[in-house]
Design a protein that fits this description.
271 residues; mainly beta; Immunoglobulin-like; 2 domains; five-stranded antiparallel β-sheet; 2 helices; 18 strands; binds copper (II) ion
Length: 271
C-alpha cells in the first residue's frame, strides 16, 4: 500500500483519564497504576486507505499524541503487549483482538480484513509511560455487501468451539446493571465431558473476556474489559465484572487451548 494514498480519516477525542478507565474497565489489576499520576489526555489518530473493501487486507496505523499534539514515544507493556486493539462490527457480529506492532515515534501498525461491509468500531487500549491505561475509540467503514445484522440470542449459554464445550454461568443468577457479577465459563471436552486440561496462559491470564454493550453508536462507555480471577479449577474460568447499564451485551471469552486462541461468544441481557 502506497503511503501517499493513506489519509487520516478520523481523529477521536474520546480520551479517558486513568480514573475513568478504572471506573469502567473495573478490574483490580490496573488500580495501582492510576494513583499518583497527573491527569493527562491522549488522542489516537488512525490512518487507513481511502477505500476499504470487504475481503481485502489493509493496513491500519494508529498514532498516539499527547494533549499538546506531540507524538507519545514511550509506552509500557501491559498484559504482555504495548497496545491491545479490539475490533468489532457495530452490530457486534464480528470480533477481532489485535496487537499492533510499535514502529516508534508514537506509531502503531497492524493489518486486518473484514469479511463484510458496514460500520466497525476499534477500541484501542495502551499505556503511555507514567500515565496509566488509556483508551481511544476509532471508527471506520467498509465498502461492499452488507450482511443482515447479528441477532442477539440471550438464551444461549452453551457453545461448542472445536473440541471444547463452553458453558456460561452467572452469580448472582440474574444479571443486573452496576452490580458486581461473577461470570464463569466452564470448559469441558465434547468427547467425554471431562474438564479441559490443555489450557495455556493467554496474555498473562487464564483467559480474557471482552464485554461490549449493544448500542446504536458504540462508544467507550459500552466497553468493559474484565480479567480472569486467579483461583478455582483450571477448567473453570471466572471473571468479576460490572455491567455499567441495563441492556444487551456481547461477551467474547478467549483462551489459549493447545497453543491456539479459541473464542467463545455469548449474548446476555442485563436488567
Ligand atoms: Cu490484547
Amino acid at each position: 500500500m502506497n503511503k501517499n494514498c493513506l489519509q487520516i480519516i478520523m481523529v477521536i477525542f474520546l480520551m479517558f483519564t486513568a480514573s475513568a478507565v478504572k471506573g469502567q474497565a473495573d478490574h483490580p489489576k490496573h488500580e495501582s497504576h492510576s494513583s499518583g499520576s497527573a491527569v493527562k489526555s491522549f488522542q489516537a489518530e488512525m490512518s487507513v486507505p481511502d477505500e476499504i473493501r470487504q475481503g481485502r487486507i489493509f493496513p491500519i496505523t494508529i498514532l498516539i499524541k499527547d494533549e499538546k499534539g506531540r507524538n507519545v514515544t514511550q509506552f509500557e507493556t501491559f498484559q504482555e503487549k504495548l497496545m491491545h486493539l479490539i475490533v468489532v462490527s457495530d452490530d457486534l457480529g464480528f470480533f477481532r483482538h489485535l496487537h499492533p506492532d510499535y514502529k516508534g515515534n508514537g506509531s502503531f501498525l497492524t493489518e486486518t480484513m473484514f469479511p463484510d461491509a458496514g460500520a466497525y468500531t476499534l477500541f484501542s487500549d495502551y499505556k503511555p509511560e507514567n500515565s496509566g491505561e488509556q483508551f481511544s475509540v476509532l471508527k471506520l467503514r467498509v465498502k461492499g455487501t452488507v450482511r443482515p445484522p447479528a441477532v442477539p440470542d440471550t438464551k444461549k449459554t452453551e457453545k461448542i468451539v472445536g473440541d471444547v464445550r463452553v458453558s456460561m454461568d452467572f452469580s448472582p443468577k440474574t444479571v443486573k446493571a452496576n452490580e458486581e457479577t461473577t461470570v464463569a465459563f466452564d470448559l469441558k471436552m465434547v468427547s467425554d465431558d471431562s474438564p479441559v486440561k490443555d489450557l495455556q496462559p493467554f496474555l498473562g491470564e487464564k483467559a480474557h473476556l471482552v464485554v461490549i454493550r449493544k448500542s446504536e453508536i458504540l462508544n467507550a462507555n459500552d466497553y468493559v474489559h474484565a480479567h480472569a480471577m486467579k483461583e478455582g479449577e483450571t477448567s473453570v474460568i471466572k471473571f468479576m465484572t460490572k455491567f455499567p447499564a441495563a441492556g444487551v451485551y456481547k461477551l467474547w471469552c478467549h483462551f489459549n487451548y493447545k497453543n491456539e486462541v479459541v473464542t467463545a461468544d455469548f449474548w446476555i441481557n442485563a436488567e
